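Discussion board: Methods & Data

I've been asked by a reviewer to show the raw model output for two of the constructs in my manuscript, not just the figures. I'm not sure how much to include, so I'm pasting the format here to get opinions. Each protein appears as its amino acid sequence followed by a line of discrete structure tokens. Is this the kind of thing reviewers expect to see in a supplement, or should I convert it first? Here is construct A:
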Amino acid sequence: MLKMYLGRDRRSRRRSVAGGTKVAAHPCPSRTSSQSRSSTHERVHHLRWQCNHRKSPFRHVLRYLRAMDKLSTREEIAAEAIAALHDDMKKNTLRNDRARRELAHIIHMHDTMRNMAEEREITENSSMFKHWSRDCEEKERHYAQEIERCNAELRSRRFPLDESLEHHTLVSLAEDCASIEASTYDLAAQLSFYRALPSTVMEAQRALEAMEAEFTHEAADGVESS
């Protein structure tokens, strides 16, 4: 927009120069309306004096003044637009700064929470390792006690130096023989019992009849005694 305004102003100045009017340079008017009007009146008076002195047509001066007024108006509009853009830039800068601070705070909180989680995990692992170490020490102590107890029992069961391994072997053999003899006696008793049993059917019938007769006789004796 400002470029468009400046382009129009250049074209106005070209038309005024092409008309044959040469105007002395003046400082740019201010942005306030009262000061602009006063400076415009002063320029009109000065330009009227120059026209009378140089015998130039005053309509070119009026045309130039109208162009200058338009330029001043456009400059004021451009200045307001620029000021509004500066305000928007400041607001955006403040918003970006606030967003950066919030992002930095979030990153800091994230790093803090991650460090806390890592420290908690390290603490838990350390306590767990201590627990395992304590259990291993207790187990090692228990195994050492068991080994010591077994060694003491072996030392208590160890034979004196004057006894030989042969004596220990003989004692063990004697115990085995006694066990075999007891089992042999049981087997002999079972064999004698099996030999007393009848070997044929006739012998079995006679034994059965004898047992029945004996049972009948014992029953009769019981009845008579009652």
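Construct B, same format:
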Amino acid sequence: MGYKKCPKCELNYIRDDQQLCEICSRKYKSFDEDEQQEVIMCSECGEHPAMKGKDLCAACYKESLRQESYAKQPKPPVVTSIGMEDPDMDDVEVPIDNSEIPEDELTEVERDFDADDDAGELDETDDDDDEDDYNG
């Protein structure tokens, strides 16, 4: 039974049947444990360590669960109009105090509304003319 120097540190003597001295073997064991406990970072944010058995950290995992539950909720119906086409709305008048609107803007607004009324009348008569063209 002979002795040789430790191949790792080359300071301590070990028996021929040993691979490393006690000091190097302790370091090697702790190195293996650290390697096994290697910290895996979150695949989403990359800032926090991932939870055991998951790719995400706790914060990102909670956020993904929240988004999944939000996606499963029924969507509210989309309202395409706000009731402006309701025939009952034509009779509703909104009281406007003309003293609050400057006179030059008031005349411009009245002109715009008159133009809209005239355009609506033209559209109705144009439709009647188109029907006559197809029938005759």
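Answer (T.O., handling editor elsewhere):
This is acceptable in a supplement if you add a one-line summary per construct. For B, something like: Residues 3-72 form one domain.
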